[in-house]
Amino acid sequence: MIRSLTLGSILALAAAANAQPVLTFATNGSAPGSSYTLRYGPYVDQGTSGADQTWDLSALATDSMDVITLVDPATTTNGATFPTATVAETGGDAVMYFRTAADGMYLAGSDADGLLIPYSDEGKYLVFPCNYTDTWSDDAAAEFDVQGTLVTRTATITGEADGYGTLIMPTWSASDVLRIHWHEEADDATDLFTVQSVYDSYLYFVVGQSYPIAQLVHTELTILGNTTILEHAQWVDELSTGTMEHARATDRIEVFPMPAQETVNITLPATMHGACTFSVADVQGRTMSSLPATELSNGKGTLDVSTLTPGLYLLTATDVLGTIATARLVVE
Questions:
Q1: Which residues are CB-contacts of 75 (< 8 A; sequence separation ≥ 6)?
Q2: What b-and-e string marks burial along 67-88, b requiring 16 or more CB atoms within 10 Å of the CB?
Q3: Mean pLDDT (whole number) for 204-212
Q4: What is the pLDDT of residues 70-95, one digit of tens each?
Q5: What does pLDDT average to over the chain?
Q6: End-to-end Cα spacing for the chain
Q7: Are strands 50-56 and 149-168 parallel, antiparallel or unpaired?
Q8: Beta strands 104-112 and 115-127: pairing type?
Q9: In this structure, what are the phi and psi dihedrals at residue 5, rounded to the nearest 5 degrees?
């Protein structure tokens, strides 16, 4: 167990173990159905950027905890206000709404105790696929009401995958971690004044989990010339290996084009043998239907998805030996 290792031995193992991770829609797209415990505590130094890093966050100390659950937006009280959202994150200070798409994760809005902020221009929170050194920039906009006062929000988001390596936490560690440096500058303007916000975060991701396993957040709020700085850390209670083990134990189907309409082209992994059956499940894990392969030769073929309503699905192929391969499928 990791607690029985010295820090020196962890670092030695990490130096040999790291591979360059890539976050994809298939492995890291957020969807309803998972839950995890999130710890909060004081900010610590984020460490350096670059390849094959070891980030030592073992000094993190817990001062509070939340249980975060990813759900279907339609099941939340104000989900109808966020019609583009595909997943809602509940259990924290606010319900956060996101749209998962083939090219990334988008922030659709938030609900903080009835303060509804739907984004008319969604900000790109994460790009797919995401490799080390990738960068992106996106604008975001929203209008919302605060006690009868109209607030207009404009924001610019930038992201950079600035490093990969090993992450050492107080009770667990993870290799093949990709770090994202995420920065947002926003203005919330009213007729009387403007609140300026700066959010600067370091997010640590592993392949197979849609949420950051650790995050360091620096916030600056400026109103009427006065600036308040807030900092905190948040991280998962334990490294949930179930999703990652599933991602590694099952191969991936190549699917294109995405989003799909009438038909979709597929390429099966070389580990598949013989005839395969295909099924699709919705974001809540319910099997919707079986799909016949209209053509399948040397692991390549097409699937008819015209009977599926627009949405996000999990496509599963099973061969005659019981080998399973999966892929996320978006139908528009």
A1: 88
A2: ebebbbbeebebbebbeebbbb
A3: 92
A4: 999 999 999 999 999 999 999 988 99
A5: 85
A6: 46
A7: parallel
A8: antiparallel
A9: -95, 145
